[in-house]
User: Which sequence fits this backbone?
């Protein structure tokens, strides 16, 4: 995939743009003034592969905490500032690696922008110029929308225009304004001889965001931070981000990404990497292949696959793992993976690098798969996956699809007549997903 040619900037130790890998970032959800909680969350983010972290600074006390946070973390730290530009100046004094501002809502306008850019330049750090559809000329937008909502016929009567056409024109106008504003702010920075900045053009509407990024990307070589703002909860946010990012990244647009989710920030990182892996833009961590299971399934794919995936969450080495439910597609997918499990009746075949390694009974699936995966990883990561000392909890689920069905039948038969429950899944055993992973 050919990347758009951009200038390269540096945010702390992480290069952004040019030929740098597309970096993954997130934002903390703690109160920034709570240094201990914020540092702890940043460490958790780092463990799962976050490469840059942003923290909100709504008040002076938050900006004042930045120095203490910075001293205790490894990731480049970005201060997120709205309205009060003095907090951006304070953040720069505290030693952050970048500040994110939205010049459109900055009190003091261009004068304050100039002060922030001058301070950033003197400190040798970057800024992000953020333009957000939600905060762009709300009043002007409303007037525009009303204008296109009504059309006058030749006889002088007013009719409502086609809603789909209205939406398209509204979007076009909004995108034009977003891009014009972004380019204007870039001009302010360039007038000061400052080029160490990136831009974001966010919208919660995927089509608006995609159109704005594409239009902006065609006009300059400024690196872009991609984000679909207020994207939603785990499912809706992941889907919206994947749809938007894949279109943009497919055009070679995007130098750093954040998947915004209404969830713990640690959950944003695997989604971001999954998107980048699917597009073959980053190869970090586990590429997971598992069948959805169906009426032919011979093993409890759902439980085994989710448990394996969870135990591999902190692995950074690129590795492909397959967990397949039966012989239809199991051997093929397992052979193509670095480690694969192809389920069969009461047993399963484990593949390693395309070769059959062993046939194991259902009760040993998890343990054997984890052992094989660990054997392909560097020692530190192998210990995370299969410590072999019980510290990651039991590795034998002790559960099979058949026993699951029987459990269900037994349980149901005490309250219902037997014979009406065939095919029900079993009662889940306590899993890592339901307790803390050490
Ligand atoms: Fe169904 Fe087998 Fe395909 Fe899994 S691999 S979806 S169990 S046919």
Assistant:
């Amino acid at each position: 995939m050919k990347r758009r040619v951009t200038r390269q900037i540096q945010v702390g130790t992480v290069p952004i743009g040019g030929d740098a890998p597309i970096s993954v970032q997130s934002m903390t959800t703690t109160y920034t003034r709570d240094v201990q909680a914020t540092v702890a969350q940043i460490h958790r983010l780092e463990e799962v592969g976050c490469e840059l972290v942003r923290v909100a600074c709504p008040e002076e006390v938050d900006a004042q905490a930045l120095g203490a946070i910075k001293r205790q973390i490894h990731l480049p730290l970005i201060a997120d500032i709205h309205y009060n530009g003095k907090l951006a100046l304070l953040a720069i004094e505290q030693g952050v690696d970048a500040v994110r501002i939205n010049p459109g809502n900055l009190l003091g306008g261009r004068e304050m922008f100039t002060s922030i850019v001058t301070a950033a330049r003197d400190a040798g750090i970057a800024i992000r110029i953020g333009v957000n559809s939600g905060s762009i000329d709300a009043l002007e937008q409303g007037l525009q929308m009303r204008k296109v909502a009504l059309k006058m016929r030749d006889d002088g009567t007013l009719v409502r225009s086609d809603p789909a056409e209205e939406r398209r024109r509204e979007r076009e106008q909004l995108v034009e304004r977003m891009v014009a504003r972004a380019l204007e702010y870039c001009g302010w920075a360039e007038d000061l001889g400052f080029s160490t900045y990136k831009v974001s053009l966010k919208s919660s509407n995927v089509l608006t965001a995609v159109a704005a990024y594409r239009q902006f990307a065609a006009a300059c070589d400024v690196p872009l931070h991609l984000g679909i703002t207020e994207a939603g909860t785990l499912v809706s946010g992941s889907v919206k981000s994947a749809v938007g990012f894949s279109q943009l990244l497919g055009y070679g647009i995007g130098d750093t990404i954040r998947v915004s989710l209404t969830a713990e920030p640690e959950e944003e990182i695997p989604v971001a990497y999954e998107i980048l892996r699917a597009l073959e833009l980053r190869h970090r961590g586990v590429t997971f292949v598992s069948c959805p299971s169906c009426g032919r399934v011979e093993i409890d794919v759902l439980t085994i696959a989710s448990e394996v995936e969870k135990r591999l969450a902190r692995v950074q080495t690129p590795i492909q793992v397959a967990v397949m439910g039966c012989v239809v597609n199991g051997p093929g997918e397992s052979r193509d993976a670095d480690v694969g499990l192809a389920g069969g009746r009461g047993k399963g075949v484990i593949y390693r690098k395309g070769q059959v390694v062993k046939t194991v009974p259902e009760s040993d699936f998890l343990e054997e798969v984890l052992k094989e995966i660990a054997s392909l990883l560097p020692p530190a990561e192998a210990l995370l996956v299969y410590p072999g000392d019980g510290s990651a909890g039991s590795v034998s689920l002790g559960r099979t699809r058949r026993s699951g069905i029987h459990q269900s039948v037994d349980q149901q038969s005490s309250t219902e007549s037997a014979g009406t429950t065939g095919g029900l899944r079993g009662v889940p055993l306590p899993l890592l997903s339901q307790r803390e992973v050490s």
Observations:
- The first helix runs from residue 35 to 47.
- The chain has a mean pLDDT of 86.
- The longest strand covers residues 126-132.
- The two ends are 39 Å apart (CA to CA).
